[in-house]
Each structure stands twice: as C-alpha cells, then as structure tokens.
Amino acid sequence: MKKTGLFLILIMLVHSISAQEPAIVSDSVELLLRQQLIAFPQEKLYVQTDKSGYLSGERIWFRAHMVDALTHRPVFISRYIYVELINPLDDLVKRVKIRPDSTGAYSGYIDLEDDLVQGAYTLRAYTQFMRNMDEDFFFRKFIQVLDPFSLQIEPLLTFDVEKNDIRISLHFIDRQNSDTIQPEVVTCKIGYGALKTLRPKENGFYRLDARLSEKEKNRTMLLSLIHKGRKYNRYYTIPSDPAEYDVMFFPEGGYLIPGVSSQVAFKALNADGLSTPVSGTLYDSSSNEILSFESIHQGMGLFHFVPSGNESYYVICHNQSGTAKRFDLPSSKTEASIISARTAGDWIKISCLKGIESQQDSLSLLIHYKGQVLLHRMWNPEVEMYNIAAGELPSGIIHILLLNSRQEVLSERLLFNLNENEFALMQATTPESTYKRREHISIRLKMNDPDLTPSTGNIAVSVTDKENVVRDSTINLISTMLLSSELKGHIESPVSYFADGKVNKYALDALMLTQGWNRYDIPGVLQGKIRTPDAFTPELSQRVTGKASGLFRSLKEGQISLLAKLDTLVSTITTQADEKGRFTFNVEYPEGTTILVQSRSKKGGKLNVINIDQEVFPPLQGAGITNRSEAINQFSSTQDSYLKIADEDYTQKNGIRTILLDEVTITAQSLEKYKESTFYSPISAVGLKTAKDIEKMVVSDLRSMLYHQPGIIIRGDEVTTTRSDLPVLFVIDNVNYEDFSSYLDNIEVNSIESIFVLRDNTTMPGYYPNTSGAIVITTKSGNYKTDTHRPPSIDEIVPLGYQQAAEFYSPKYETPEQIESSLPDLRTTIYWKPNVLFSEKGEAVINFYTADYPAVYLLTAEGVNNNGKLIRFTKEITVEGSNSR
C-alpha cells in the first residue's frame, strides 16, 4: 500500500469515527511498528499447480507466486525458492530449487516415479529468508497421488481405536467382479515402526493389533501387497479415538466481565488436531442451564451470555460419537477492559467494555494491518462505540488492540475484512461458444485494476478437464494470501470460508476469535523490542562455504580453488581464505553439478585440511499436513474416470507399467542371509543380486555395479535415488553408514554376498531425516570394517542447484494429417503456462488445441499484478463430440 493511500485512509477513518475525539496520541506506536516493518520485511508464498491430483508417473507443473507480505506486490528479496514433495511418513520425495525466469516467474516441475505410493502428499515451499520465521508460515498444500492398480483391487479397512490401541481389520475386493481375493503377500507398517507381514484368517480377512507410542505423532499406515505379481502400495491415515477430543473457549477480547454481555467463541479438536463438530450446554455452578449451542464450521462456533459476579460456569459437550465431556469456562475478571468488535453492514463497530474494578487509566485504540498502522488515537471515555467504514479498510485480517498509557496490550481482537477494490478484474473471451476435438482455441485475456485502468502483471494459467481431474477444494491464491498465510498453525480448508465467491461471515468471525495473528510480536514491538532476521539473510546467489586449515596452523590467505563439473562442462574459480580459514564462493550452477574444492597454503603446500559446509534444510518431521482418515481411506468413484484416462495416456506415451517383482533364482542359503536384514521386504526391495548374480555381471568395483542398480543415480561421489536428492543410506552387515558415498572403492565386489536397493524410506525401520532410500549390502564375512580415509586437502559435494527450465508440451493440429492422426490425445492437463505476461494495455492471448474426448475444460488463472492486486479467475470451455472437422 502506498504512503499516500494510507494517509487518505487515515483521514477518512478519523472523520468517520467522531467529531468529538481528543487529539491524536503521540506517534511513537506508529514509529515502532514502522521500524519493525523496515527491520524485518517478510515474504509470502503461494504455489499454483496445474492440478491437485496426479497419477504416479505424471509430472507436477507449478508456479510459485512470491509477494511482499505487506503490499502483496511481487518481490525478489530471495533469488531461490525451494519446493519439496513430502510423503505422509515425513520422508522427502523430491526437493527442487527454482529461480526466476526472464519474465520474473518462479516456475518448475516435479516428476513422480511410476511406482510412487498412493496417498496424500504435502507440497511445501519456502525461501531461506523465510526460515527466520516459524515454519508455520511456509506454504503447504495437499497433492493426491493415485495408483491405476486401484482400478483393479480395492482394500477395505476398518479401524477400531481406543486411545493408542489400534485394531485394524481388512480384506481385498477384485473391482472387476466384486470377489474377495487374497494377495500373495500383505505387509503393513505404522509410523516409523517395523514392517509386519499379515496372514489371512479363514474368512479371507486380515487383522493387525498395534499400540502407538505416546510420543508417536505420525498416524500413517503403509499398506503393501503383491497380487498376481503386481505391487500395490497405499498410505492410510489411522483415525484417532472418537472419544478423545478437546474444546477450547475464547472470550472476545480475552476476558469475561461480570454483568457485561460477552461473546464466547469455541473450537473443538480431536486427538490428531483436526476439527470435530460438537454441541454443548452452558451451566452455572449450581447446574442451572443457561443456553445450548453447536458448532457452525470446522468445529467452531459462537454464543453470547451475561456472566454474573462471583459465579463460575462449565459446559457439557457432545461430539458426533456421542461422547460427553465437561469443560470449565475461564473465570470472569472485574478488573478487565476489553475490545469488542463486529461488522454491521458497511460498518465496523468497536466498543470498549470495562469491569467495575478496571483501572482508571488513559486508553488508546490501535488498528493495524500486517504491522502497518491504520489508526492510533486516544479512546474518548465519553464515547461508547466507534464506527469505521469497512470499505476504507484493506482486505484481510485487521488487528484491533486496546492499549494502556504504557503501551501495554490490554485486549485484542482480529477481524476479517473483504474489500472488492483489492482485486484485479479479469475477462476472458473466445471466438466460439463450443469447440470440437483437436480444434484450435484462442483466448483473449483482459486485466484491469478496480478503477478500470489497464493492469500489467505476470500470472499462471492452467486448462484442465473439469469433470475428470481431481480438483482442489481446500486452498487457492485468495484464501492463502488473505487468510491462511497470516495465521499461525494449520487452517483446515481455508477456501471453505469463501464458498461460492461469498464470505462465510460467521465462520470467519469464529476463526478470528480462536486463532492468533503472529507475523510480528506486537506487544514486544510496542515495548521497543524490534525483531531482526538474524539467522538467515536473503539468498542472492548459491553459496559454497567451508573452512580450510593447515595441519599445524591456520590457513591464513591460503588459496582455495573450486572446480564445477556437469556432464562435459567444467568451470573453475579461486578465492582466498580469511584469517580464520573460512572461504565463500558466490556461484550459480544447475542441479546435478559436482563441486570439488581444493586448498593450498600461501606457498602452494597441500598439507592442509578442507571441509565444505553441508547444506542444511528445514526439518521434515512434522512437515506434512495432517489429513482426515475419511478423506483418503475410502475409495472414491469420482477418481475412476481420471484414472482410466490418465493411465491410458501414460501407457500411450511411456509404455506398459512394469511395477513387478524382481525375478531372482537364489539358493536357500542366500535367501536366508539377505532375508535376515530388517530392511528387506519382497515388496520394496529392488535390484536384488546374490553373489552368483554379481559374478555374472563381470564388474570390477562397487561403483560400476551401482550404475546397473535400479533407482540409483551416481554423480561424482554422490549416490542418490531417483526419488530424492538426499544421499542414500548404506547398510552394510546391518551397520548404518550415512556418509559412505566417497568410500565405494573400499568394498571388494567379490566380498559381497547380496545387495538390494530401497528407493525411499517408506518401508525402512526407523527415522532417517538426512538420507533417502538405502543400499543394503551383506558381505560374505558378515563383519565388514570400513576405512574412511579421504584426501584432506580436497573435498567434494553435489549441492542442490537450480532446476533448469522445461516447457509444457501442448500438441498442435495444424494440418489434416495431424488432425486425422490415429495417435490418441488423452491429456487431462490441456494447457499450462506459468508466465502469461500482460501488455501495457492489460491484454494477453493464450492458444492451445483441444484433446480427443468431449469434456468441459476449466481455465484457472491465478496471480498478483504489478500493483499488488490479487487475481483468481475461472472460465469453462465446452468441447463437444469427438468427430473431427
């Protein structure tokens, strides 16, 4: 928001409040908040994907919209944005680093492995600078991954949960004929526990009894099976005990005041932290019924009553399972002074309510928007209520505070305001009302600011099959920018507060009363405690840092040389170490680049030691979004059509899926050896080779053999899987080695009894946040001892480089031969362009061709224009019958 705009708002606010107000208070409050904004500017992220559900083997296309948290204008404080895909067990599937393209757009992609486990994944995005904040302010959203094998087999599960004791009953249905089937192998893994093999009962049912640890927060179960030689894996969320829930009560302004009508908000959460509907009855200490209430949205609701002095109150609540619980209301305070606020039509009405013993102190009213002061003035004790025009306030969360003369916060209230003037206006026109197969569509886009002047900007546009593509009904750009990014903690389904383009006023008010705004510590700032980003600076380039030291002294002014290698490309650069031997290279290399750093003393000697600093990323444990068990545990028939079309499209482009078991002929003695490993599972182990298999390969060293192992990538001394850039865990004779990639030559190939690969951590016993996947080796001796000698003056690393750009393929049908081609076009994402640029006239044009089947396409455009106006626009396009023209 411009300074002149703020001035006009303040003038309007002052005149709309009252003509009898005392003089404006000292501006020390505004100065302190302004200092905080300058000292710690903040970024805000929203990641738009071409769709929210994918078939394993597909590519996720995405655009990251990064804006200034205050103004919502596009910002480039950080050069890099990190985007991660995290599975339900909090293991990293993929991490990419993207930089802005020539148009200023941050865009990229994530390729899904064709045997990725079905389930609800979390897409997380952040910058290094954002790590100065709580990780709750990282962007997160669900990504649904589907396995086409679910068209053939359906697991049916029931959960019986009592506190931490779980009984699971399951059986399997052939979806083609509805018969009960018994897979050859069924295994189950809960959280980070061990893998268990299940045996069927006489009736074809399987059962598993388990007890979760009190410390176990992850309630994810991995179900794996083999049926007719085909692997099928799926994540399930274990529901919490329906009898375990909690209800919290939040009096408006923070306190109940005797004799004063009080508004009380409540929030009901089950044991896994998700909302649960409740109803309740309020009683006084003599068990006299006062009123009844029930939740209105996401376990939240409101009620009003007038508390009496020297009286206490309690509530009896019932959840959906009928479990009754008692909760005490907070005690009333006769000395309290609180803020009460409500929206009435076009006005926001603010009152100051006081107890009979409240301090006789001068009070002031502070209203700010994300740290920017909209109003700060003395409260006139003769005025009961101030009226503020809602249309003069910006869209989003307004923070209202009551301060005493020492600028201490006595009471606070959040209020959500929606101002239509905060949004850009978008129009999309097409020459035709309907289209045929393989027909060209040209869409002219027009964008204006609210005052109808042309608007410039850079947005992302996707066109998908509306009827078959899994749609995200929980999050979009508007709900993220205005709501969930401003509140601490996970907000369930923020889109639900803006259903059908309208604001759910009462649900939003309940949310404002039960949730806290926490981008800045406002009480601390008002006392002069200005927070600065002291842990992470904005990332302007790729930094390779480390320390070099001589064997007997520091390596002051020693020469440090860097060599970067990617395929056949090589580059070098040199620098000097500082007095403490520290060195820094500011470089920029694409992903997959191997960096070798060597140190020499000032006189050219090599008798020194060098260590490159390892990259450190935010912890993964707890990074995933908690999902409702009923949301993913049950089969959804609406997914059928998408699965059929997407799988046929995948097969046409990539061939038939080969997610089958490795066929290995082994002796009983060899079988016994590798099956003794706790890491072994016939479902997850790939590339299994015994000593006889290795002998037939005719390889001279372990490195050469690993080149032939499925799912393994080797770059220099870095060994990773195809699913992650994290190094693999080496398990040699049941001993774990997290940093073994540099010592591959230490193992003689003829000493290996067996070897197999785990492509990720899903079936591995235990928690391994620093590695992904494993190479499990059993030696013939069974007691391997490592010698991890490294040349001391040379160190090597494969850091996370920026992702190189890729373009979405959209076929063209310009000739009769192309139109009549027998090659089917079964795209579900019809069009994706992450950087649609608007001209000075506010115009842009997009072009694409329709696919083969009749459908209703949904065009979705999201972004922020150059003036900070939010954009969220959808348009339907009808494609009729499949006859060609």
Taking the sheet with the most strands, its summary is: 5 strands, mixed
Strand elements, count? 52
Distance N terminus to C terminus?
Answer: 52 Å
- Name the strands of the widest sheet in spatial order: 2-8-7-4-5
| Class from helix and strand fractions | mainly beta
Q: Mean pLDDT score, rounded?
A: 87
Helical region count? 11
Task: Work out the strand percent.
Answer: 35-45%
Compute the CA-based radius of gyration: 31 Å
Helicity, as a percent range = 10-25%
Enumerate the spans where pLDDT stays under 50 for 5 or more consecutive residues.
Answer: 1-25, 660-671
Notes on the protein architecture:
By secondary structure, the protein is mostly beta strands. It has 11 helices and 52 strands. The strands form 14 sheets. A 5-stranded mixed beta sheet has the order 2-8-7-4-5. A 5-stranded mixed beta sheet has the order 32-52-51-34-49. A hairpin with a 5-residue loop joins β51 and β52. The protein is globular, with a radius of gyration of 31 Å.
Task: Provide key terms for this protein.
single chain; 885 residues; mainly beta; 5-stranded mixed β-sheet; 52 strands; 10% helix; disordered N terminus
